[in-house]
Amino acid sequence: MTGISKRYPGVLALDNANFDLKAGEVHALVGENGAGKSTMMKILSGIVTEDSGKILLEGKAIHLHGPRSAQELGISIIHQELNLMPDLTIAQNIFIGREPRRFKFILNDSGLVKEAEKLFAELHLNLDPNRKVEGLSVAQQQLVEIVKALSYNSRVLIMDEPTAALTSNEINELFRIIKGLRDKGVGIVHISHRLEE
Questions:
Q1: Which of 35, 70, 84, 95 has CB 3.0 to 4.6 Å from 75, enough for a Cys bridge?
Q2: pTM of the predicted model, to two decimals?
């Protein structure tokens, strides 16, 4: 991201900001509230449009027309406010809108579960894909959000304050997963205001 600027009424949120992220790299984006961390990452994930500047992916300029176009390019964001549907299962939440189908119109529930299990195995997670999200802890919901993001074959994973509601053991588990993703070549942005992270 080069020369990124964004102005809201009465506020210059970003002024000619630059940001580089390489494959297999973890960046902590740290700063006070209002410093522009989330705005920068919302631009990178297609949620907000920059007023000026360029976004390059593998050296080529890209134009994001919303979060879906970012996901199609392998850029995913996990927001601080989790975005799961409590009445659905873990597997249904991961693939909502992209469910495997038979004959183009019949949902393939067993295929859905198998795909979720493959993703869990890659991350060494012990989750039941048939379990409803409403019964999960905040940490487990965070893991479901990570798996959901990775189901898009993410090359860039942005996590906005992922540890805000987690215990120290849960934070350690999250960092284990982040290290594993880093080792697989995923570029990770960890937004925080905690310097020790």
A1: 70
A2: 0.84
